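pasting for ref
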Amino acid sequence: MALNRATKLCFAIGLVLFLLLAIKGVACAQPIAPPWLDLDFIGEQEPEGVALTLQILFLLTILSLAPALMIMLTSFTRIVVVLSFVRSALATQNMPPNQVIIALALFLTFFTMNPYWQQINETSLQPYLQGDLPYEEAVVQAAEPVRDFMFRQTKERDLALIVSLAGLERPRGPEDIPTYALIPAFITSELKTAFQIGFLIYIPFLVIDMVVASTLMSMGMLMLPPVMISLPFKVLLFVLVDGWHLVVRSLVLGFN
């Protein structure tokens, strides 16, 4: 609780300082003349032509959408669900903590998505920054690696469901499927795959719980919670088989 309050306080202080610096920068740039808002970006050829206020607004919008994009368009969903299943199967309550699980899921997401992000940087971002590629074409080029990743992980049945619900014609290829239909199909497939992996993770720990519960019942120890006895054996089994190594290896190889 104290950590959450401190995090919120630091975020609020940082946001206030950021807004104060932005207001100061705008005031220094145009101290007297009233600002005029021009939303016509078609004629702008240089980034300096865009108003500073709109740049700040655009940056805040991207920052607010970044968590949703990270969850929807990357491998984060499957990884974080599987790691949560591991903790639930071990029955260790909050060990490892939520911060550790989220951090591990984020870094594994960066690792698995790095080849696609490098492709976006080489084929879209750098040509656009150098002025060799217009904005519309850069967006199309940037979407191709992400769509390719989602198509690789999306199950055909889930994709057919979303296409039928959207009332689209039967696609002849991946290029006929719009991105707004691909995203929900991808998320559904990721959740299905994560739950399948979670079921397999639960099986050995469930066997330990059943054996411990049967042993305690045969010994007449009905008042002793089986979780207290089975927990050390679960942790011991997980350590002996190098469980984190197996889980991380399976998750990373599952995206190749």
